[in-house]
Amino acid sequence: MYSSSIFEGNLYNFSDQEPQRSPIGIFDSGVGGLTVLRQVYRQLPNESVIYFGDTARLPYGIRSQAEILQYVREILTWMQQQQVKMVIMACNTSSALALDIVRAEFNLPILGVILPGARAAVQQGKRIGVIATPATAKSNAYKQAILEIDPNVQVWQVGCPEFVPLIEQNRIHDPYTTEVARSYLEPLIKQEIDTLVYGCTHYPHLAPVLRSLLPAHVKLVDPAVSVVTACIQDLDLLGLRNTHPPLPTRFAVSGCAQQFAQSGLQWLGYTPLVEEVSFSEAKASHL
């Protein structure tokens, strides 16, 4: 189920004369994917990026698989229309519920965050906790991926339905958020975990809160770091690494552009220019 490469059974056709200069697409339900974008800035400073936040329909973590699949197909169709050369699905819920399906449907390299995150977790410890959205936790995607890599580790998962709304509302330093985090972490601390995986790209924003509640020896694993490392490897294999200066990052959302721009200032250190995109006119051209 968790293929190690984006290339298995796929041939990609890049018609542009210089496809290396085409942007990488990154999408998430909201600001969570900015943790992946920051890693692209650090690890792939020459790459141009188009970032899409599906803010009109967040949180994804309480949606059904059918809903998630519809959203992901619409986003990927739009991404193709923007002529991206690769897409990073910077959303654990989408990676858990839709990645394998859409990889077979779209003639486009698509990376998910779960397998890179699972590999990083196994390298860190043997008693692994995963905090995730309810949909990701219910899917058992992380547990399955981790145990496929190392059957000898132990994995515990906790669904955290309140985290994404609290982060999107910029309530990270609210005392209520600390209490919510305490309740989510308690069963994992009781299991004496040595590693905690951010099973949602929003969750690194909560690092100060989580660190304050966890025993000092517990290692934190951010799959955003690992998925960008995997992106580098795949770009090199495809001959798509850009060596020219990048274009400014383009930001688009399905909800309120102003609200996203305000969040972007906090997480990126600058106020992004954000456009609003509607999928009502998008053509289902992926098949």
UniProtKB/TrEMBL annotation:
- The EC number(s) attached to this protein equal 5.1.1.3
| This protein's pathway | Cell wall biogenesis; peptidoglycan biosynthesis
* Keyword Zinc among UniProt keywords: no
Q: Does the keyword Isomerase apply?
A: yes
Provide the alphabetized UniProt keywords: Cell shape, Cell wall biogenesis/degradation, Isomerase, Peptidoglycan synthesis
GO MF, one example = glutamate racemase activity
Membrane-crossing residue ranges in chain numbering: none
Catalytic reaction list? L-glutamate = D-glutamate
Please name the catalytic residues of this protein.
91 (proton donor/acceptor), 200 (proton donor/acceptor)
InterPro entries documented for this protein? Asp/Glu/hydantoin_racemase (IPR015942), Asp/Glu_race (IPR001920), Asp/Glu_racemase_AS_1 (IPR018187), Asp/Glu_racemase_AS_2 (IPR033134), Glu_race (IPR004391)
Give the binding site residues for substrate: 28-29, 60-61, 92-93, 201-202
Tell me one GO biological process term. Answer: regulation of cell shape
* Pfam families to which the protein is assigned, alphabetical: Asp_Glu_race
For this protein, the record's PANTHER family field holds:
GLUTAMATE RACEMASE
Q: Which family does it belong to?
A: Belongs to the aspartate/glutamate racemases family.
NCBIfam families xref list: glut_race (TIGR00067)
Report the function annotation for this chain: Provides the (R)-glutamate required for cell wall biosynthesis.
Query: What name does this protein carry?
Result: Glutamate racemase
Organism listed in the record = Tolypothrix tenuis PCC 7101
Q: Taxonomic classification, please?
A: Bacteria, Bacillati, Cyanobacteriota, Cyanophyceae, Nostocales
Identify the gene encoding this protein: murI
